[in-house]
Amino acid sequence: LGKRITGAVSGLVRSDVVDDKALDNMLKEICAALLEADVNVKLVQSLRKSIKHTVSASPPGPQRKRLIQSSVFNELVALVDPQTDNLFKPKKGRSNIIMFVGLQGSGKTTTCTKLARWYQARGFKSCLVCADTFRAGAFDQLKQNATKAKIPYYGSYTETDPVRVSKEGVDKFRKEKFEIIIVDTSGRHRQEEELFREMVQIHEAVKPDQTIMVLDSSIGQAAEAQSRAFKESANFGAIVLTKTDGSAQGGGAISAVAATKTPIVFLGTGEHLLDLEKFDPKRFVARLLGMGDVQGLVEHVQSLKLDQKDAMKHISEGVFTVRDLRDQLGNIMKMGPLSKMAGMIPGLSQMTQGMDDEEGSNKLKRMVYICDSMNDRELDSDGKCFVNQPTRMTRIARGSGTSVREVEDVLTQHRMMAGMAKNIAKMKKAGAGLPGMG
Ligand code: GDP
Ligand code: MG
């Protein structure tokens, strides 16, 4: 998808004048790419209309190019961002029940554990309940995952009624004052109606504060019907899109959001416990547009100043927080092969010296996990709150599944960039301009 759309847009942009014929050709290309990526036909049509409407009102001069680029981007963002502002936020000091639904194999059990760990790392006492009594081995799988993540769990080898198991588990953990209780359900049944009936019953028994549908990003055109069916019986309030590390283009997810008016909240980006990312519509689209076209993405992201904005603003003021470092690392990872990208961050090429692309990007990933295990205060700090704080470092190493040594590496990298930011601000004040920047 990315390649074709980027191609259509940039091919057009090479010529100076964008007449109506060129515009029509471009729209045709984009729509073909979207359809190929399994985006719903009706959505594609409305997207086309909308872009055409926006663009044709402008004169065919140079500004028109920019308008085309931004409206393709914005329209795609609007498709994956239903703009609901009643997003679920768990509250500390009470039991928040989260129920997972979705087809077998979509990634529920894996994602349950990831999410429990995610909340755990943010200071919520979290646990898991296995209500999948249909599939043999389901409880063992959850048990194994939970043990690895050091998350308490509940389930049964003998009880066959999922409604009873889930009620027992939730009641038990409620009494024990757990703050996040995640209920994993089955995704298959002898018959489809039975699965949906079961979901309704579990829902009534545990009264979840949040229901999440897990969707495999390779679902394709079936996404619309499937998500509608789940919405009707389980009325989920959020979607987690899994396996985004695979080759699927994710067009189905766009249809699921549009059909159910429900936001995607997280992305599953791998099989590992830590492969969970908060969903960001702009980043998602930037990545979609930039796939297979690294240079294009870099330029595009720079022109949008997405995540760079705060970091750049901070740098010019001489401030560089740990969160700024995390954003920079995240950006780099999304942009492609490390060998090409590490050079963009000073000091990083030293830290990843001698590593191949895979080792290097693993290192980057772990650095991001470390940042993600910090709380907001730590992220927004200048890093000094870690000095002589071994328990704090240990907590973060544990939460991110890394070592204290690696946490120190992140802080070293941060210190170095913070020092640079200070120097840049000083030079700027002295009127010396920015070497190598503009
Ligand atoms: P469930 O049947 O819905 O509970 O699905 P599982 O959690 O058992 O996952 C099915 C398979 O998908 C397992 O092999 C997982 O390791 C894999 N899986 C889940 N999420 C992801 C992901 O984000 N990326 C990748 N690559 N694999 C995933
Ligand atoms: Mg499962």
Automatic annotation (TrEMBL):
Sorted alphabetically, the keyword list is:
Cytoplasm, Endoplasmic reticulum, GTP-binding, Hydrolase, Nucleotide-binding, Ribonucleoprotein, RNA-binding, Signal recognition particle
**Keyword presence, Heme:** no
Residue ranges constituting the SRP54-type proteins GTP-binding domain according to the UniProt record: 263-276
Catalysis: reaction(s): GTP + H2O = GDP + phosphate + H(+)
Q: Name one GO molecular function term.
A: endoplasmic reticulum signal peptide binding
Q: Name one GO cellular component term.
A: endoplasmic reticulum
Q: Tell me, what does this protein do in biology?
A: Signal-recognition-particle (SRP) assembly has a crucial role in targeting secretory proteins to the rough endoplasmic reticulum (ER) membrane. SRP is required for the cotranslational protein translocation for ER import and preferentially recognizes strongly hydrophobic signal sequences. It is involved in targeting the nascent chain-ribosome (RNC) complex to the ER and is proposed to participate in the arrest of nascent chain elongation during membrane targeting. SRP54 binds to the signal sequence of presecretory protein when they emerge from the ribosomes.
Q: Which family does it belong to?
A: Belongs to the GTP-binding SRP family. SRP54 subfamily.
The name under which this protein is listed is: Signal recognition particle 54 kDa protein
Annotated organism of origin: Terfezia boudieri ATCC MYA-4762
Mind giving the lineage of the organism this protein is from? Eukaryota, Fungi, Dikarya, Ascomycota, Pezizomycotina
